[in-house]
Amino acid sequence: MLEGITLGLATALSIKNLAMVIAGCLIGTFIGMLPGLGPMSIIAIMIPVAITIGDPSAALIMLAGVYYGAIFGGSTSSILINAPGVASTVATSFDGYPLARAGKAGKALTVAAIASFAGGTLGAILLMGFAPALVSVALLFQSPEYFALMVVGLSAIAAFAGSGQVAKALMMTVLGLIMATIGESALFNAPRFTMGIMDLQSGFGFITLAMALFALPEAIFLVLDPNRSNTGDGESGKITGLRISGKEAREIAPVIGRQSIQGFLIGVLPGAGATIASFLGYAVERNIASPEDQKQFGKGSIKGLAAPECANNAACTGSFVPLLTLGIPGSGTTAILLGALVALNVQPGPRLMIENPEIFWAVIMSMYIGNVILLVLNLPLIPYIAKLLAIPRNYLIPFILFFTLMGAYIGQNNATELLFMTGLGVIATVLRFAGFPLAPLLIGFILGPMMENNFARAANIADGVSFMWERPMTLGLLILAALLVILPSLRARRQATQT
Predict the structure, then answer these.
(1) Of 47, 225, 233, 349, which residue has the fewest beta carbons closer than 10 angstroms?
(2) The three-state (H, E, C) secondary structure of the chain, written as one string
(3) Taking the model in full, what pTM does it have?
């Protein structure tokens, strides 16, 4: 392994490859900040550029830089304008945006940058040391286990439900699952529940729903409440509190350690990815927090911000394990990267480490270098990025609406999506007024198709649902999902009886 690390460093530290890392990180960061243009879109656009480079190592290093750069930068719009344009940064907005509203936008961006750097860096170290061994673990997961893993992800609703709101969270999760069934199923080439509307044959787009649930209601709330655009910074246009204190650093250090490992392991599983890692990271940290800390989740907790940011970046790194060692894309983004590898005449799989060690190790070492570059690039820019909140309300509302509409249109390239988004946005605003949590709806929508497809495959193979108790790993994951829902309720009941 030491020989591989040396070879990877020598390849990654060449002037050409360093330039590729910097270019990929810059492109990914700025694209990630724009709602609607996630890593999948920009990597697809960058593939022709990568092919013209010629050198497979340099091309893959640049594309990998775009990938984790977009994940790194995706937190910015979630924190500042509550517009998560990428699924893996939805959980970031739950506590990042309340921090920004409380006049702590600079601190929120700093925590996100540090957590992202730590997650990506620790993920790269784990990838370097455990990639060959983790291949065998990933191969143990089949359709039944993936179905159970999706159920564990859905059990995160307990983390997004306030006191006495579990029933509302369950209702919103079911609504998200229902919305996920609209359109063509991956198992049947026939439209479902489209009501004869042709534009619904492919279902609702994620960007459309995310913008409707979070960004559009925020613009409506700004119109209804003129004081909402006041960030509370004291002096207009002055961003304070960019540094985190020693106490805050000690608070998030264990969170970063736990979520780096958990996020990486989830990222290793083909089909899991950064989205599930971020939701589970948030859910786990909320459920193990003290009662006082739990009250801060959803209201501006730095632990609630650090957990998903660390987990999604670690998972992003972990997703390269099945891609490079098995040739299995773990997500839509890595599927595009797999296509780029094939176009570059590189065959990922078990023999990649033997036949092309310079590519394998150069990509891994470039991840560590890229995370350092991202931190160096982003930390000095935080005071300027955070000033977005100092924009007057009469300019901020059109700004949010512009990026909301642009993100929805670019996501599906269909003007009808704007009508869907507007209608869903009005409904989401009413639900927020009624006190319904919107995060469970989006979780159900994201995980629903994956859960349905894996359940159908597992049921077909087992000729029934007996796989749920006949496969030990599946049963264990389902028990874990039940505990994630039951334990918070038991804890709340115990606290009520004690008081």
Answers:
(1) 225
(2) CHHHHHHHHHHHCCHHHHHHHHHHHHHHHHHHCCCCCCHHHHHHHHHHHHHHHCCHHHHHHHHHHHHHHHHHHCHHHHHHHCCCCCHHHHHHHHHHHHHHHCCCHHHHHHHHHHHHHHHHHHHHHHHHHHHHHHHHHHHCCCHHHHHHHHHHHHCCHHHHCCCCCHHHHHHHHHHHHHHHCCEECCCCCCEECCCCCHHHCCCCCHHHHHHHHHHHHHHHHHHHCHHHHCCCCCCCCCCCCCCCCHHHHHHHHHHHHHHHHHHHHHHHCCCCHHHHHHHHHHHHHHHHCCHHHHHHCCCCCHHHHHHHHHHHHHHHHHCHHHHHHHCCCCCHHHHHHHHHHHHCCCCCCCCHHHHCHHHHHHHHHHHHHHHHHHHHHHHHHHHHHHHHHHCCHHHHHHHHHHHHHHHHHHHHCCCHHHHHHHHHHHHHHHHHHCCCCCHHHHHHHHHHHHHHHHHHHHHHHHCCCCHHHHCHHHHHHHHHHHHHHHHHHHHHHHHHHHC
(3) 0.69
* Per-residue pLDDT tens digits for 262-289: 988 888 776 567 778 888 888 888 888 8
Most confident of 40-44, 112-116, 143-147, 414-418: 112-116
**Which is nearest to 446 in space by CA: 190, 156, 192, 198?**
156
